[in-house]
DNA sequence: CTCCTCTACGAAAGCGCTTACGTAAGCGTT
DNA sequence: AACGCTTACGTAAGCGCTTTCGTAGAGGAG
């Protein structure tokens, strides 16, 4: 911490304006009980001295912080950076600061990060990103979150269930269904799903939606291969290589996020496969670049920034008696990466 | 802040392990002067009670924080989110937490954010993103930063001069020159530069480099139009529309960041102009998607994550007697969006 | 056995704020 | 004129830690 012996303290402001430290505190924090004239005098003195309150002292004394914590998987990933953007903007409006940490989708790191946020006594914790299907992996996180919540902390999550706290939940399953219906509607039958690890609930939910559509169309979901890889661009490339080797007659690829879809497009191009001429590709999320790709990526739009903002709003509200859930509709956006099935 | 009356305090740990609060403190923070057996007993008790130290109290008492502040223009922008990613990763290794704020390139918001970081008594402040050419705009920021630094705070900036603090400076000018030389080498002569607002030093530097190359090639830089727009994808689209209207015979577009270049590609495609057949396009930064675009974007690579990490490293070091500068080489990456000039 | 030096620990003084409580002054009532 | 109520402010007790200083006891040197 900056050695503050050189920076003015509240008592300096109080002396300078000829009032007690209590009055100075009240004047600066806007607590009633100070006459306007005195308050103005104090503020004036503070300005002249360049006084900035020590938030640590303030938090310690008052028992409340303006800081909120945000946990994401990877801030470099546009999905999360857009969520973060929504959170930061709204937080700034509320005069709150945001502490961000990323976990690389490592459940242990995740718990540790939450613990560190608790130690920082943040006023609220926001957790973005998929949970894990395996409940035993999720358990320590749940425990930590519950303890924090019981101690009076506010928690909200986006895109994650099972944590027993307020949540903003994108329509992953309906979204998966919508995009699969779109693909099926174009006449595709030789389809593969390009998927992140099935341990993530987000992946599982989206895949569930895809299966809904397949079965509604009278297909057997087991006939549609699910290629699993890292939930990243490189993962998409890798899956396409496997697809070209093992399922060469495929006419449509349903990728379960845009990152993978972008990797798919990239690898298909390098492999000389035309999109959507020979193979159609769809994504999920609608990250900002999706519309600027060539071909423009057909995907499912999720309003990431808004989701972040809504999570913050939930966390800032008084806690309800039970966990609130906000559904966020997923909207199919058809662009140029999908077209009629080649025959 | 979470009401901590319900969560254990140091004194609870001390009681539970039958030692004084001082010893407990020492045992938990690893300060020497405690026997191993006692230390272990204390740690054990802490674990059982689920004790997490109150960092506010700790900061207040010790006068130091583990928190570092990061100021970026817009966290949703891949350039900044990749920098942030580098910072977060390295910070986690050092057991430090990061508070991020974004400013929307608004100089006033920037100053305010820095002030709020100072109030939070962060141990170091990192500022990423272009400064402003206009010194009077930059002055309040300079003032705030200096005051913080004089009070013992550590500051490091990335991609920004003029602040009189440690800095990590990408080779914007040489990079601009390199990419322009590449374009010229392909035989292009009817070139336009697609540029963000010239008030940003980053833009000015890159443009300077482009001009260096033009003049080295014996051209008059004034013959190369500079189309100015927002430093975003939409800005790129807008500039291309103007280019098509005002400079229809252009064969090459030098965009001064990837975001704008992506917008250029997008608009050229919608307008039915082939890249690189009719018009070549280059970017700057090499954000992650650049290689996955179609055509792959020729650009200048800046190692963003590394730049973030290096800035943090500088800030964590003992301050030097004078501001340190680290240059980061910019490397031309030739992909498919540039080709020989059409005749 | 005494003296001195370490080591391991405890007591207590803050760190810079907020806030409960106390009090003096001003004002309206009866 | 005496009383109560309100307003505006000061006093001082913490918030939960770290750290300086003091001290008791163990051990070695003489």
Considering the chains and any ligands shown, give keywords for the structure.
12 helices, 343 residues, disordered N terminus, elongated, alpha/beta, 12 strands, 45% helix, homodimer
| β-sheet strand percentage of chain A | 15-25%
Quaternary structure type: homodimer
The major sheet of chain A is characterized as: 6 strands, parallel
Low-confidence stretches of chain A: 1-5
Q: Which pair of chains has the greatest number of interface residues, and how are they split between the two chains?
A: A-B, 70 and 70 residues
Topology, number of strands of chain A: 12
What is the rounded Rg of chain A? 25 Å
N-C termini distance of chain A: 67 Å
Q: What is the residue-averaged pLDDT of chain A?
A: 92
> What is the tally of helical segments of chain A?
12
Q: Order of strands across the biggest sheet of chain A? A: 2-1-3-4-5-11
| Topology pattern of chain A, helix = H, strand = E | HHHHEHEHEHEEHEHEHEHEEHEE
Helical content of chain A (DSSP H or I, runs of 4+) = 40-55%
Global outline of chain A: elongated
Structural class of chain A, please? alpha/beta
Could you please describe the fold and organization of this structure?
The structure is a homodimer of 343-residue chains. The first copy, chain A, is α/β, with parallel strands linked by helices and 343 residues long. Chain A is 45% helix and 15% strand. Chain A is built from 12 helices and 12 strands. Chain A has helices at 10-17, 21-29, 36-49, 55-62, 78-93, 107-119, 135-150, 172-185, 201-216, 233-246, 258-270, 304-316, and strands spanning 67-72, 97-102, 124-128, 154-158, 166-170, 191-195, 226-228, 252-255, 280-282, 299-301, 325-328, 331-333. In chain A, the strands form 3 sheets. A 6-stranded parallel beta sheet of chain A has the order 2-1-3-4-5-11, sandwiched between helices. Chain A has a 4-stranded parallel beta sheet with strand order 7-6-8-9. In chain A, strands 10-12 form a two-stranded antiparallel sheet. In chain A, helix 9 links the parallel strand 6 and strand 7 (226-228). The termini of chain A are far apart. Strand 2 of chain A pairs antiparallel with strand 2 of chain B. The structure holds a DNA duplex (30 and 30 nucleotides).
């Amino acid at each position: 911490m900056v050695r503050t012996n050189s920076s003015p303290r509240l008592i300096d402001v109080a002396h300078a304006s000829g009032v007690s430290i209590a009055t100075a505190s009240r004047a600066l924090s806007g607590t009633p009980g100070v006459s306007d004239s005195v308050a103005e005098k104090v503020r004036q003195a503070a300005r002249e001295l360049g006084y900035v309150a020590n938030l640590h002292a303030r938090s310690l004394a008052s028992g409340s912080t303006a800081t909120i914590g945000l946990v994401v998987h990877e801030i470099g990933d546009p999905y999360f950076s857009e969520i973060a953007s929504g959170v930061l903007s709204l937080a700034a409006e509320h005069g709150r600061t945001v502490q961000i940490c990323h976990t690389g989708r490592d459940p242990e790191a995740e718990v540790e990060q939450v613990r560190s946020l608790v130690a920082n006594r943040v006023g609220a914790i926001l957790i973005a990103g998929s949970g894990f299907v395996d409940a035993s992996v999720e358990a320590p996180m749940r425990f930590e979150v519950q303890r924090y919540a019981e101690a009076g902390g506010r928690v909200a999550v986006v895109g994650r269930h099972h944590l027993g706290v307020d949540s903003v939940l994108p329509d992953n399953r309906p979204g998966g269904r919508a995009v699969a219906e779109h693909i099926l509607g174009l006449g595709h039958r030789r389809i593969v799903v390009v998927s992140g690890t099935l341990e993530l609930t987000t992946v599982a939910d989206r895949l569930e939606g895809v299966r809904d559509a397949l079965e509604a169309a009278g297909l057997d979901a087991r006939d549609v291969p699910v290629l699993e890889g890292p939930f990243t661009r490189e993962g998409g490339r890798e899956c396409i290589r496997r697809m070209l080797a093992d399922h060469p007659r495929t006419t449509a690829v349903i990728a379960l996020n845009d990152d993978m879809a972008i990797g798919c497009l990239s690898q298909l191009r390098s492999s000389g496969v035309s999109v959507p001429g020979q193979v159609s590709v769809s994504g999920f999320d609608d990250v900002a670049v999706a519309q600027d790709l060539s071909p423009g990526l057909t995907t499912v739009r999720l309003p990431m920034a808004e989701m972040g903002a809504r999570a913050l709003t939930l966390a800032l509200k008084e806690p309800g008696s039970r966990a609130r859930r906000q559904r966020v509709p997923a909207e199919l956006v058809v662009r140029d990466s999908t077209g009629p099935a080649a025959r």
